[in-house]
Specification:
387 residues; binds 3-hydroxy-3-methylglutaryl-coenzyme A; nine-stranded mixed sheet; globular; 2 domains; Peroxisomal Thiolase, Chain A, domain 1; 27% strand
Length: 387
C-alpha cells in the first residue's frame, strides 16, 4: 500500500488573548474553575480584521514559501466558521497565497470533525495521484455567547497541512473507527453568529463517541491501547482530553498513562477551542513539546465533531520529522501575544456593524501579513500587506 500522510504542518493564532483569570474576576468566580476545572488558561481573540480566512492564510503561508505551489492541485478548507454560504473560504485564499488557476477548492463542514474527513479523503486522493499534493487547512473562530457556560471555551486558530505520498512528518494509518449519531449537542443555525449547545450532554456524547469509535477501530484490526506512544484528542478544553484519556484506558482495561496525552494539551490550553484545527494543534503540540525523538512513535488520534461524527485513527511519526516542524515560530506566535482587558475583550467580541450597500472598513488590528480590509456591499475584501 502507498504510504500517505502529512509532509508539513503550520499553525497560526491571533496576537491577542483574554486570560481566563480576567474572565473569572469579571464573573466573580474562582479562577481555579477554569485553570483546573476545564484546564484552560487563555482564549485567543481575533481582531475585527481577522477571520477563518486570514488565520488560514497565515497558517498556510510558511508551507507555500517552503514547498511552492507546483504540485498542489487541491485546497480543502475545513471550517465551521466559514464566511460565505456558497463560496468556499479557500477561494478567498487564492490570490493571497498566489495559488495557480489549475487547482480545485472545496470547503468541508461537520463541526469540529471535518478536517479529519478531509484528511482521509486527501490520503486516498494522493494515493491515486502520487505526483499531486493537497493543501488542507483547518481554521476556526470559536465564539460563544457572552455569559454563557461556553464563554470560557472560546478560542481561534488555524492549522495548515500538506498531504502527500511518502510523507515527511506523519504517516496516516489505513485503519480507522467511525461513529455517527444524529444528536443536538451543539449546532449553529444559519441565522446565528454563535452556536446553541447543551454543554453537559455534549461532554457525555463525546465520551460515548470515543468508546464507539475505538471499538470500531479495534474491530477493524486497529492497534491495541498499549501499542500507542502518544494520544491526541479533539480538545474543546484540555480537561475533557484528560477525562477522555482515562475513559479510553478504562474501556481498554489498562491503567491510564496521562504522560502520553498531556504534551498534546500544551498549545490548546493557550489558544482555547479552535474547532476543526483543535486535534491538529494537539498533534503539533505533541510533536513540538517532546525532547525525546519521536521517530517511529505511534499516535492514537480521536477526532469529534458535534452533531455528531467521530473517528479514531492512528499515525506513525516519520524519522527525520523534526526538519519539517517549526517549534520556534509556533512558540514565538504564542509568546508574543498581548493580554486584553475585559472591556477590550468585549469590544473585540462584538462585530463591526455592516453598512447596507456601502463599504464597511475594519479597524487595522491584525499584526500578520493578511487582513480583512472591509466588506463592500456584502463583498469581503482581503489584503496582503506585502502584495
Ligand atoms: P459549566 O457548567 O460552567 O462548568 O461549563 P461546571 O460547573 O460543569 O464546571 C466545570 C468543571 O470545573 C467541573 O469539573 C467542576 O467540578 C470544576 P467536572 O465535574 O466536569 O470534573 N470546578 C472547579 N474545579 C476546581 N476549582 C473550582 C471549581 N469549580 C468548578 N473552584 C461546560 C462546563 C463544558 C459544560 C461548558 O464549558 C460548555 O458548555 N462548553 C461548550 C461545549 C463544549 O465545549 N462541549 C465539549 C464536548 S462537545 C465538543 O467537543 C464539540 C465542540 O468542540 C464543537 C464542535 O464539534 O464543533 C464543542
Amino acid at each position: 500500500m502507498v504510504s500517505t500522510g502529512l509532509s508539513a504542518m503550520s499553525f497560526y493564532t491571533p496576537h491577542r488573548y483574554v486570560s481566563l483569570d480576567t474572565l473569572a474576576e469579571h464573573h466573580g468566580i474562582d479562577p481555579a474553575k477554569f485553570s483546573k476545572g476545564i484546564g484552560q488558561e487563555k482564549i485567543a481573540m481575533p481582531g475585527h480584521d481577522e477571520d477563518a480566512v486570514t488565520l488560514a492564510a497565515e497558517a498556510a503561508r510558511p508551507i507555500i514559501d517552503r514547498f511552492g505551489t507546483d504540485d498542489i492541485d487541491t485546497v480543502l478548507f475545513a471550517t465551521e466558521s466559514g464566511v460565505d454560504q456558497a463560496k468556499s473560504a479557500g477561494i478567498f485564499l487564492h490570490d493571497l497565497l498566489g495559488l495557480p488557476n489549475n487547482i480545485r477548492h472545496v470547503e468541508l463542514k461537520q463541526a469540529c470533525y471535518s478536517a479529519t474527513g478531509a484528511l482521509q479523503m486527501s490520503c486516498a486522493y494522493v494515493a491515486r495521484k502520487p505526483d499531486k499534493k493537497i493543501l488542507l487547512i483547518a481554521s476556526d473562530v470559536a465564539r460563544y455567547d457572552l455569559d454563557s457556560s461556553g464563554e470560557a471555551t472560546q478560542g481561534a486558530g488555524a492549522v495548515a497541512m500538506l498531504i502527500s505520498t511518502e510523507p515527511k512528518l506523519l504517516e496516516i494509518g489505513p485503519i480507522s473507527g467511525l461513529f455517527t449519531e444524529d444528536i443536538m449537542d451543539f449546532w449553529r443555525p444559519n441565522d446565528r453568529r454563535t452556536p446553541l449547545f447543551d454543554g453537559k450532554l455534549s461532554a457525555l456524547r463525546y465520551m460515548k463517541a470515543l468508546v464507539e469509535a475505538w471499538r470500531d477501530y479495534r474491530a477493524n484490526g486497529g492497534s491495541q491501547y498499549d501499542e500507542f506512544d502518544r494520544f491526541c484528542y479533539h480538545l474543546p478544553f484540555s480537561r475533557l482530553g484528560e477525562k477522555a484519556h482515562s475513559h479510553l484506558a478504562k474501556e481498554a482495561e489498562v491503567a491510564a498513562d496521562m504522560g502520553k496525552a498531556l504534551p498534546g494539551m500544551i498549545y490548546n490550553r493557550q489558544v482555547g477551542n479552535s474547532y476543526t484545527a483543535s486535534i491538529y494543534l494537539a498533534i503539533l503540540s505533541t510533536l513540538e513539546n517532546s525532547d525525546e525523538d519521536l521517530s517511529g512513535s505511534r499516535l492514537g488520534l480521536f477526532s469529534y465533531g458535534s452533531g455528531a461524527t467521530a473517528e479514531f485513527f492512528d499515525a506513525t511519526v516519520v524519522p527525520g520529522y523534526r526538519e519539517y516542524l517549526a517549534p520556534e515560530r509556533h512558540r514565538e506566535i504564542l509568546n508574543r501575544r498581548k493580554a486584553v482587558s475585559y472591556d477590550e475583550y468585549i469590544a473585540l467580541w462584538h462585530a463591526v456593524p455592516e453598512a447596507e450597500g456601502a463599504m464597511t472598513s475594519m479597524p487595522d488590528e491584525a499584526v500578520g501579513r493578511y487582513r480583512l480590509t472591509g466588506i463592500d456591499d456584502k463583498k469581503r475584501i482581503y489584503t496582503d500587506r506585502q502584495g
